[in-house]
Structures are given as structure tokens and as C-alpha cells.
């Protein structure tokens, strides 16, 4: 592709002769991945500054260097005719997103793109939308926390929302593969770093906003501002915003956007456009009557469990209605949705107690999870204990650690604190900070996560509920920069089998 096409609309104005001459072979922001003829964009990351790697990008054959700072590269050891062209821009991340969109020929303009953002519920909501669209006969692409899906091909997801070149590359591959609709989780990090900019979203959903990622955003105001960008800057002209107005930040978003966007609201409050009533909850699923302003009432049944999933279903319904999906198709999609990996996932190996693995890793999500589990158990006449196993990730928002310790010890009968992904932190220090929030003596610390899960399983009696929270679908544990294989579900299943074998030998 010619440089003129790659730089179209970006904030740099090279000479016309240069634009016609240069041929661009690719885009990179990682100097280690630069190939001859690439554009290298120097972006500032959380841990590294791409400007420090400009010399390496030059040596690897970068044809063009996009940068914010004064030129820091050196042409030492590079032939004069191979020294790249430098363009200084006000914001490298904006330029990276623009260039990526151009290089992949703006794929979002050829397909209907749906974005889902919020602290909790993004993954389940996107899976519900996926199930609904498939029931409608649509070919689908999915970008999210668990995986990237291109029709029936599944790829591992390293980031919920990847960097701009990977994001636009995925969109282009999805379009080329025949996808008609794309559903993407859009994280607050991605919105702050403009990874999904220059994408035209036809519909966007806001699930909720609760404390998380304050190590990155600093304040809840900044966190909210990042989420809001999806609706104010990325939603297409004539696009539809779907908002949970039971959430305080959702209500604020609604009132700030009112009159500027076409909005659809959902919630348990009667004022919402999409409203759920007569909710019946059990560990086998949820059912309720769905009231839709101007569209009547529909009976909804789903294998998903809990009030949190009632909200996720309402969000998916609102998005689906906004793009013209028939209500009977929506009801079938909700009814036939497959369980989402690591989201209130049952681990069953013949035991007489319930074992659940869930991704809950924020104070709000953990509190809702324990309340929901205890509530369903009580409603169905069970009086078993709730045993909660959880930890907190390292190098992340430290302020939420004692909050989660307080919630877990107040809401559970018994708590086992353990490691999550300690990353570069000392796991014992993380556990100390969680323990500071404990409000009861019903809590012990077992740093080894496998041992903690085994202990919880051994403790459980008939009718009890073991919750293993924090990692959900993840199949690794990150320690000192290394990812070791680890899966909560596998460890729990093996612990249950070992317990059964031990009991049979007694």
C-alpha cells in the first residue's frame, strides 16, 4: 500500500512526491517485529517507551518512523538510502489507530460492529449476542476476554481488546471470511489508549461501572470518561447506545448523552425501555417476563444463573432489538446460549455439594456473586455453607484488596485467601493487604492456589457451595513474568475426585 493511503487523515503532511514513492508493507509498534518497509509507530506504554527503540526499528528496516518526541533515532550503521522518513505527530496512539484503519482499509465500514463496555458482564453479554445472532443465521466475529472467534475458528485472546493494528487486522480477517456482524468487548484501557479508534460502531452497550483498574485510571471519573468515549467518539452517526440505568454511572451516562444519541435503556426499574419482572432463579437457570416499550412482553428462559445474568440478558436483548432482530429469534438465542467459560461455571464430578468457578475479581462482582449464590440456595430450601476461595492480582489496583477481604468475610461462611496472578509482586504481601479488610475470624490464608482449592473441597459438606473466584476461564498463573499452566476448573475437578477416592478407601 502506498504511504499516501496509509497516512490519509493522520496528522502529518509529507511531500506529495514522497507519498507517491513509498510502498508500505506493514505497521508495527514493537521494534522486535519490524520488517523491511514497515511503518514503526513509537508509542508510550505503561512500562516502556517506544521512542527508545527507534534505532532498533531502523536497523530492522523500518521505512517510516512516526513519533511524538524530538527525533531520537540514529542512522549509524545504516546506508543513507535506507534511512527512514521521520514524521512527528501530536499523539502517536491516535496516529497508530488511524494508520491501522487505513492499512486494513477501514473494515468496520463493511460490516455491522457492536461494542460492549463496562466493568462486569462484558464477556457474558457478548456471548449472548453471539448466540442470538447465530440463531438469526448471521456469520459472526467475536473479540473478547476468553477468545477471538472468526465464524467457527477460535483463537486465544491475549488482550480483551488488542492494540490497533491487531484489532483492525482481526476486523479485516473477519470481513474477508464472510462475517456479517462483529461483537467486541471494548475495555477501558483500550478506550484510553485509542486501540479501537477509527472503528465505526453501529451499537454500543454500557453494562455498569464499579471499582477496578484505578491503578491505571487513577480516579473513577477518569475511568468513566474512558468508557464514555465509546458513545461520544466511536459510535457511528445514527448508531444506538444501550445503557443500564439501574447503575448510577449508567444513569449519568444516559443523561449526559440524552438528545445527542439514539439511546435504549434497560434495568429492573419500570422507567427503562427494556425491563425484567417476575424473575425466577435457580441453579439450573433463570426465567422472567421481558417488557419491551412499544414491543410487548416476551417470556424468557436461559440456562444462565443469577440477577447479574438477567442484566446481561437485557443488554443483549436491547442490542439485538436495536439492529432489527425478531423477538422470537432473540428468545431462542437466549434459551440456547452455551455456558460462558469461567463465568459461574459448575464443576461437577459426582460430589454432593456445588462447586462454582467465576471470574469475579472486583469488589462489586464478588459481592454480587456471593449474594446471588446464597440467595438461590436459600430460596430453594438449602442451608449449606458458602466457602469462598479468592485472591487479588499483583501489579493492579491495590485499593480494592481490603475491600474484597471485607466483602468475602462478611458475606461468606468461610474464606480461604490465596494467590491469584501475583505477577511481579510478592504474593504474601498481597494476601496481607486483603487480610486487612477481614471483619471476621472465618478466614485463613493458603498462598498456594492449588492447596487452597483442595482445602475448600475437603471442607465442603453435603449442600455446601464452594466458590472459586478471580481467574475464571484463565488457564495460567502469572508469577514473576512467567505464565505457568493453571486452571481452577481442572484443579477443582481433580480435588473432588481425590476426595471421593479417599472416602471410598476409608
Verbal overview:
- This protein has helices at residues 3-6, 16-21, 54-59, 92-103, 122-135, 164-176, 188-192, 214-217, 220-234, 248-257, 307-322, 327-335, 363-379, 400-411, 427-435, 449-459, 488-505, and strands spanning 26-28, 38-41, 64-67, 85-88, 112-117, 140-143, 147-150, 153-156, 181-185, 201-206, 235-244, 262-267, 274-282, 285-292, 296-302, 345-346, 354-358, 386-390, 414-417, 443-445, 465-469, 476-479, 482-485.
- With 506 residues, the chain is α/β, with parallel strands linked by helices.
- The chain has three domains: 3-102, MurE/MurF, N-terminal domain (Udp-n-acetylmuramoylalanyl-d-glutamate--2,6- Diaminopimelate Ligase, Chain: A, domain 1, 3-Layer(aba) Sandwich), CATH 3.40.1390; 106-335, 3-Layer(aba) Sandwich (UDP-N-acetylmuramoyl-L-alanine:D-glutamate ligase); 345-505, Mur ligase, C-terminal domain (Protein-Tyrosine Phosphatase, Chain A, Alpha-Beta Complex).
- The strands form four sheets. It has an eleven-stranded mixed sheet with strand order 8-7-6-9-5-10-11-12-13-14-15, with helices on both faces.
- A hairpin with a 3-residue loop joins strand 6 and strand 7 (147-150).
- The model has no long low-confidence stretch (mean pLDDT 93).
Amino acid at each position: 500500500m502506498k504511504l499516501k493511503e496509509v497516512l490519509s487523515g493522520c496528522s502529518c503532511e509529507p511531500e506529495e512526491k514522497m507519498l507517491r514513492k513509498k510502498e508500505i508493507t506493514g505497521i508495527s509498534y514493537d521494534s522486535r517485529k519490524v520488517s523491511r518497509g514497515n511503518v514503526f509507530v513509537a508509542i508510550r506504554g505503561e512500562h516502556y517507551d517506544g521512542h527508545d527503540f527507534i534505532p532498533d526499528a531502523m536497523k530492522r528496516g523500518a521505512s517510516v518512523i512516526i513519533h511524538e518526541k524530538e527525533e531520537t533515532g540514529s542512522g549509524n550503521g545504516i546506508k543513507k538510502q535506507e534511512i527512514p522518513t521521520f514524521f512527528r505527530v501530536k499523539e502517536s496512539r491516535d496516529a497508530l489507530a488511524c494508520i491501522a484503519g487505513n492499512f486494513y482499509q477501514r473494515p468496520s465500514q463493511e460490516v455491522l460492529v457492536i461494542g460492549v463496555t463496562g466493568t462486569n458482564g462484558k464477556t457474558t453479554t457478548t456471548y449472548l449476542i453471539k448466540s442470538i445472532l447465530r440463531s438469526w443465521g448471521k456469520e459472526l466475529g467475536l473479540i473478547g476476554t476468553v477468545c477471538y472467534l472468526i465464524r467457527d475458528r477460535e483463537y486465544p485472546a491475549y488482550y480483551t481488546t488488542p492494540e490497533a493494528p491487531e484489532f483492525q487486522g482481526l476486523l479485516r480477517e473477519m470481513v474477508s471470511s464472510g462475517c456479517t456482524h462483529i461483537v467486541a468487548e471494548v475495555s477501558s484501557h483500550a478506550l484510553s489508549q485509542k486501540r479501537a479508534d477509527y472503528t465505526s460502531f453501529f451499537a454500543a452497550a454500557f453494562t455498569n461501572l464499579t471499582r477496578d483498574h484505578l491503578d491505571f485510571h487513577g480516579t473513577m471519573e477518569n475511568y468513566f470518561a474512558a468508557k464514555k468515549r465509546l458513545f461520544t467518539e466511536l459510535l457511528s452517526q445514527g448508531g444506538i447506545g444501550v445503557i443500564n440505568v439501574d447503575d448510577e454511572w449508567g444513569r449519568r451516562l444516559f443523561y449526559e448523552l440524552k438528545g445527542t444519541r439514539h439511546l435504549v435503556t434497560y434495568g429492573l426499574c419500570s422507567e427503562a425501555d427494556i425491563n425484567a419482572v417476575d424473575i425466577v432463579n435457580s441453579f439450573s437457570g433463570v426465567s422472567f417476563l421481558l417488557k419491551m416499550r412499544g414491543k410487548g412482553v416476551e417470556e424468557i428462559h436461559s440456562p444462565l444463573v443469577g440477577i447479574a445474568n438477567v442484566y446481561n440478558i437485557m443488554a443483549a436483548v436491547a442490542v439485538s432489538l436495536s439492529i432489527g432482530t425478531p423477538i422470537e429469534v432473540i428468545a431462542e438465542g437466549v434459551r440456547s446460549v452455551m455456558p460462558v467459560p469461567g463465568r459461574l461455571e459448575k464443576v461437577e464430578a459426582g460430589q454432593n455439594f456445588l462447586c462454582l468457578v467465576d471470574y469475579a475479581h472486583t469488589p462489586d462482582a464478588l459481592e454480587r456473586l456471593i449474594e446471588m449464590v446464597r440467595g438461590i440456595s436459600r430460596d430453594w430450601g438449602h442451608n449449606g455453607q458458602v466457602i469462598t476461595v479468592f485472591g487479588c492480582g499483583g501489579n493492579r489496583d491495590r485499593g480494592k484488596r481490603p475491600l474484597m477481604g471485607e466483602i468475602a468475610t462478611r458475606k461468606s461462611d468461610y474464606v480461604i485467601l490465596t494467590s491469584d496472578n501475583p505477577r511481579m509482586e510478592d504474593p504474601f504481601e498481597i494476601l496481607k493487604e486483603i487480610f486487612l479488610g477481614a471483619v471476621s475470624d472465618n478466614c485463613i490464608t493458603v498462598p498456594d492456589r492449588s492447596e487452597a482449592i483442595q482445602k475448600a473441597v475437603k471442607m465442603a459438606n453435603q449442600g455446601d457451595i464452594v466458590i472459586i473466584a478471580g481467574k475464571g476461564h484463565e488457564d495460567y498463573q502469572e508469577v514473576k513474568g512467567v505464565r505457568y499452566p493453571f486452571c481452577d476448573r481442572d484443579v477443582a475437578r481433580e480435588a473432588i475426585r481425590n476426595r471421593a477416592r479417599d472416602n471410598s478407601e476409608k
